[in-house]
Each structure stands twice: as structure tokens, then as C-alpha cells.
Amino acid sequence: MNQPQWSASENYSYPLLIKNLLFAPAVYNPNQEIVYRGEKRYTYQQFRERVRRLAGALVRMGIKQGDTVAVMDWDSHRYLECFYAVPMIGAVLHTINIRLSPEQMVYTFSHAEDSALFINAEFLPLLDHIKGRIDTIKHFVLLNDSSTPPNHPFKFDNEYEKLLAEAEPLQEFPDFDENLRATTFYTTGTTGMPKGVFFSHRQLVLHTLSGLVSLASNRAHGSFHRDDVYMPLTPMFHVHAWGIPYMATMLGVKQVYPGKYAPDTILRLIDQEKVSYSHCVPTIMHMLLKHPNSENVDLSGWKVIIGGAALPKALCLAALARGIDIYSGYGLSETCPILTISMLNAEELQQPPEEQTTLRCRTGRPFALVHLRVVNEQFRDVPDDDLTSGEVVVRTPWLTPSYLKDNVNSEKLWAGGWLHTGDVAARDSRGSIRITDRLKDVIKVGGEWLSSLELEDILISHPAVSEAAVIGQPNDRWGEVPLAFVVRKENETLTAKQLIAHVREFIDKGLVPGEAILLKVQFVGALEKTSVGKVNKQALRGK
Q1: Is the dihedral of CA 463, 465, 469, 470 positive or negative?
Q2: Which one from 334, 391, 467, 515 is the annotated catalytic residue?
Q3: DSSP label at residue 149
Q4: Catalytic residue among 33, 449, 528, 529
Q5: Which domains does the chain have, with CATH numbers?
Q6: Which residues of the chain have pLDDT under 50?
């Protein structure tokens, strides 16, 4: 007798949608807390209800599948709700870089074709400058920490909490193609207008799953697990705060959102809420460690991923001395973002702090599902000798497929079918990579490549140096020579001659090429930073 044929299409196909990241914590850990600035706290059960209400409000506003909703806020519980509610109805979440210039911001609103804007009351002065030039936006919603309306003439459609209170919760979120665009944001380029990157539901879910596997798999240290208390110190507008809020929500951990980054607030929350897991750029860690209140807070056991820029060895040692479990991560806006992580094994953790630092500051080994190569100019893999440099190119399931509406730059990004990071690295026999520079920042001295990052690390290791950045300066004889912009520590009288003598010690040990002795030094009061806390080398080149 012939058996009836069963078809998988008759069963539920379970598309990889962001809504599915909410199920487990809301069901199995409903009483866990989400905290905002230590002033507002509610449970995951309440969080899910607020997401439903926000979704219902968006639908009532007329936001439909494919529409784009822009958000301008500090790191908050509201932002986390938008991370879910906006894409869960099929709309696109546009996270606005609040540090863009008004011209750049107007460009991104128009380019993304935003239909609605949720904006924090603190940014209303900016709205005065741009409101007449953002014609696509039809709905304006105020985000306000105060119960008192701001003294501002702009007419809003509604206020966030009032909007949620009035909304009918959306009971069922629709299924749709998992490849539907879920988020978009704009890279923080130092020249020209920002470029738009975007990610689908499928990509964000896979990045979340891979991140949880990779960050939780190391028993020795740095593991992100259900007993952690999580607080992001990377802006939520920047690559979804590295995607870790999605991971934290799926785990059901306690989450703490600090609002605007102020060192006294951050340190208070670490102490008060017992924060155990964070991520930030080096400048944030540097700011926290040198703050007077830092000495009064127990930072031991705080696990912190450093990304966005190279982790200086001096900063790593200072953090380890405070008991912070610090290590590097690596990724780009175009990569959703995390590609590699530099966790140590049990044997490596037995080494002295100075030797651990070398490993913790490496760029690290790839996440699960990341296919990473280091290639030369002929697109051939370089030897895994940790010496030979090449460009990092990658393939993973979560890379931006292109720049939004930008075919020319998209072709360059994906030349040869691999995403080109623009980063120069060497790789060792264990598959761990070590970023040596950006292609655009490599200093070419007499035909030899000199790493600006290695020179910066050496300069920062001097006890009188607070910060340093190195660029190439044109030179008739050598082509380029290294030029260092150096910020002295307070009350220090370091001279250029003393600093060059410090560099010579590393040359004599064979740790940096001899061409480093051509270093020129310029002392400055501060280093200009980009909107995400990186040193703005483009601005330095213009000096």
C-alpha cells in the first residue's frame, strides 16, 4: 500500500524572526529585571507587555511593513523596546547616530526615508535646526525622562509613555520572510556623507545565536551567562550596541541601561546593580579608571569586551590591576558587528599579567560561523606565522549585503565575493589574528610598512603619556615618517626627546622596525574623537 507523502511545507517553517528571541525569557524568567539609570525598573513580563503596546501604537499610527522608524535616544529601556517592537511588525528600525552633524543627520533621515521619529527631549535644540528639512517624517514622538513636558514649541503627535498607555497591545506578531530588512544605520565616516548599512531578521538572529555560543563557550574567563548583570557602554545607535542586548534578552539576564554616559552614573550603577558584563571602546574604560569615584567602587570580576579601537596594553594592565576581566573583540559596522574575540584558555590565565596582556589585546579568533581570511594583494592567504600581514576579508551569514542605495561602494566592499574590512592583520597557527593597522593608516617609510597601532601602544606605555595617535606625515626623502600627537598626563613635563628615547628601547629589543626612530612628536591638549569614541585620524591629517 502506498504511504501518503508528508511535506515539510505543511508544518510550521519557523522563520528566523526577531520576535522569536523574546519567547524564552518572557516565559521562563518573567520576573527578571530591566533597569534604567537605577530610577526605573520592571520585569521581563512587563517588558513584553510594553513591546506589545508599542507595536500596537505603531500599527495605529499607520506604520506598516517596510516603513522606517527612526530613534534618537540615549541607552535606555525605551531603546530596547524599539529594538523589538519596530522590526517585529515588519518595519525597519533606524538607529540615529546622535553625534552626527545636522547636515549628516538630515541626509540620513532622507536617505533612509524615515516615516516616524522617536526623539529624546534633550535633542530638541537639534530638531529646531533640521525640522524644516525632514519632509519624509510624518509622526513625531517625544521621549522624556521628566514628568514635566519640555518648554519647547514643537508640536508632537504624542509622548512615549502616554502613547503606550493609550495603545491596544498587539496580541499576535505576524510571520514574514526572515530576509526582510529589520534595521539600518549609518557608518561614521570622516569624509563625505555616511553610508547606510542594513541587516535582516535572519542575520540578527544568527548573530545572536553565534554570539551566545561563542561568548558562553569559554569556561576559563569572560563567559557571558544567565547569572550575569549586563550593562552596555557602547551606544545602542551603533551596530545595535554590538548586538549584545539581543543576546542578553534571549538569555533573560538582568539588564541595566545607563542613559547618557556620565562616569559617576556608570560607576554608581556598576556598584549599585552589581553589573558583571559590559562592552565599550578604550576611551570609555580610560575615562572610568581615571575618574575620582573609581577608587571607591569594587570593579573586580567585571567582564568587559573592548572594541571599536585597539586595546592599548597599558590600559589593559591598568584594568587587570583593578580586577577587571578585560579582553578584545573585533568587528565593523558592516559586519553586524562581532567577528572575533580574544578569550584566553586556563593555561594562558596562569601567565603573569604582562604576558596575559599580549593575548588579551590581540584581535582574537573568529566567532562561530565566521569564515575569516588574511590575504595579500594577489588575494592569496598569507602564512599563519603571526608576522606576514594582509587584509582581513570575511564571509558570515550576517554581513550587510550592500551599502543602502550605493552600488559603487558596495562593489568595492564585496570585491571578489568577500567583504573587505580594510584592516591589516597577521594570523598565528591557532587562527588568532592580530590587527596591525587600517590599510589607510599604515605608514609607508622608505618602502617599508610601519604600524601606527604598534607605535601608539609603545607611546602609551610611557608613564607620562595619557593618550597618543600616530599618522603618516609626507616626507621628501622617506615618502612618509610617523607623526605622533601625544597628550601628557596631568602635571607631566615629558619632552619629545625623552619620548623618542623610549621608542628606541623597543627598537633595540627588535619589537618595532628601526624606521620608528624617524618619529616626530607633537604635544596636544586632547585628541579629537569620532562619534563612537575613536580617534579621528582624518582630522589629525588636516592639522
Answers
A1: negative
A2: 334
A3: P
A4: 449
A5: 18-360 (3.40.50.12780), 441-543 (3.30.300.30)
A6: 1
Tell me whether residue 444 is one of the annotated catalytic residues.
Answer: yes
Pull the grid cell for residue 382. 598569507
> Catalytic residue at 187?
yes
- 467 DSSP β-pair partners: 487
- The reply to whether 334 belongs to the active site is yes
481: left (phi over 0), alpha (psi -120 to 50) or beta: beta
Size of the chain, expressed as the number of residues it contains:
543
CA distance 353 to 468: 23
Q: Are 70 and 117 in contact (CB under 8 A)?
A: yes
Grid cell 527578571 — which residue? 32
Q: Which of 290, 412, 444, 489 is catalytic?
A: 444
Amino acid identity of residue 16, one-letter, is L
In 408-478 the beta strands, taken as DSSP E runs, fall at 419-427, 433-438, 443-445, 448-450, 465-475
pLDDT of residue 9: 56
Q: What is the pTM of this model?
A: 0.86
Per-residue DSSP letter, 416: G
Torsion (CA) 300, 306, 312, 318 in degrees, nearest 10: -10
Contact 367, 337 (CB under 8 A): no
Catalytic residue among 187, 188, 340, 436: 187
Angle between helices 452-460 and 496-508 (to 10 degrees): 110
- pLDDT, position 431: 95
Mark whether 274 is an active-site residue.
no
Whole-angstrom distance, CA of residue 475 vs CA of residue 2: 83
